[in-house]
Amino acid sequence: MSLMNLFRRSPRGTADAARERLQILLSHERAELNSPDFLPQLQRDILNVIRKYVEIDDQRVQVKLDSDRNFSVLEVNIELPSDGERRFPPAP
Amino acid sequence: MAKVIVVTSGKGGVGKTTTSAAIATGLALRGFKTVIIDFDVGLRNVDLIMGCERRVVFDFINVINGDAKLHQALIKDKRVETLSILATSQTRDKDALTEEGVERIIAELAPLFDYIVCDSPAGIERGAHLAMYFADEAIVVANAEVSSVRDADRMIGLLTSKSRRAEQGQPMPQHLLLTRYDAERVERGEMLKVEDVQEILAVPLLGVVPECPSVLQASNVGMPVVLDDKSPAGKAYLDAVGRILGEETEIVIPRVARRGFIDRLLGRTA
Ligand SMILES: Nc1ncnc2c1ncn2[C@@H]1O[C@H](COP(=O)(O)OP(=O)(O)OP(=O)(O)O)[C@@H](O)[C@H]1O
Ligand SMILES: [Mg+2]
Question: The whole model's pTM is what?
């Protein structure tokens, strides 16, 4: 044992990293677990409705549910293509 | 009517069976009629930890299938009069458990006992689901380590949403029991602190059981560790039993014995 060790405070260990990683990970996992099963289907349905009017990629519709103690907010984010890219689907 | 307590964790090898045996024996030592049920079908171990492996004739699965009566399968502990063991099958697998069967056996045990302690298998599949489904209360066992804490969190989520109580809209009381706690490694910053785990999981703490050689020794001879009155782990379990019974004792968090300057100078350990 070196003399320095006698006086040095215990070094910052890896446990702090463990705690931080868990805090971030679990907050995500809890949110995912609590989201109802219908969200993916809802997302597909919304996408299909929009596709009747504009062409849009799968990535451009995001559906998210935020639950609070008293109420839930369903957030639907639809990103429409800019005018330049906008193409209307062929008439049926 | 018995209260059903499940001991669960998600992750394997964290100390569920050790805990189930200790808590069941501790409750029985307090005079409560207690039965411990092994839900780990195919990997039975409660019989070994309780030291009754040579007395198993019929098991939980035999009773579920109607091949034996409940009283034929219940093994009375030789040390603690109020304690019984319901061993599981070593040859069948978890599919031998049915929701209807488990419900029926628990209903049959309920008037005979004060406590039914269910030792859950690891995982979140059928065996673990049925071990917790009928519970009135849960003990979530975790070690101060990332994967165990994550799995415990998952289990807490399942208890809160998939247990019968949760499905009926009732609260599901849960306690966190931190086991195999190594104060030296926590001190060195290698292992999560009690406070960290508790803050992350946000479930009331039932106790902290130190990592302790007496647990292995007790298992070698088939004795629940609470019967070893010199064991620090046994002591921690007995305190936890008191808390289950509503006693508000302070939780002792294992700490490293402080070494004096001279000891450190000479490199002596405490
Ligand atoms: N406090 C402790 N100190 C030292 N060793 C312990 C302690 N608690 C449990 N162990 C040891 O850890 C190992 C696993 O314990 P146990 O069988 O109780 O875990 P388990 O969660 O039931 O495992 P499984 O998921 O396989 O059912 C055993 O060897 C046991 O002796
Ligand atoms: Mg086990």
Answer: 0.83
CB nearest A13 (choices: B146, B189, B267): B189
Amino acid letter at B219? S
Tell me if chain B has a CB within 8 Å of the CB of A24.
no
- Residue B179 C-alpha to ligand 1 middle, in angstroms? 9
- Tell me if chain B has a CB within 8 Å of the CB of A2: no
In a domain, A73, yes or no: yes
CB under 8 A, 24+ apart: contacts of B154-159:
B154/A29, B154/A33, B154/B10, B154/B124, B155/B8, B155/B9, B155/B10, B155/B124, B155/B128, B156/B201, B156/B203, B157/A30, B157/A33, B157/A34, B158/B124, B158/B129, B158/B132, B159/B8, B159/B132, B159/B135
Going from the N-terminus, what domains does chain B have, and what CATH number goes with each? 3-267 (3.40.50.300)
Q: What is the ipTM of this complex?
A: 0.81
Q: Output the CA B139–ligand 2 centroid distance in Å.
A: 14
Strands (E), chain B: 3-8, 34-38, 75-76, 83-86, 115-119, 137-142, 174-181, 205-210
pLDDT digits (tens, 9 = 90+) for A65-82: 776 666 778 888 888 877
Cross-chain CB nearest to A22 (options B150, B187, B193): B150
Protein residues with CB under 6 Å of any ligand 1 atom: B 9, 12-18, 40, 121-122, 179-180, 209, 211-212, 215-216, 219, 233
Residue A48 lies in a domain: yes
Q: Is residue A66 part of a domain?
A: yes
Domain count for chain A, please give it: 1
For residue A22, tell me if it sits in a domain. no
Is the minimum CB–CB distance between A23 and chain B shorter than 8 Å?
yes
Do the chains contact at B265 and A6, CB–CB below 8 Å? yes
| Residue-range definition of the domain harbouring residue A36 | 31-81
pLDDT along chain B (270 residues), means of 10: 97 98 98 98 97 96 96 98 97 92 98 98 96 98 96 96 95 97 93 95 97 97 96 97 96 82 62
Q: What is the CATH number of the domain that holds A43?
A: 3.30.1070.10
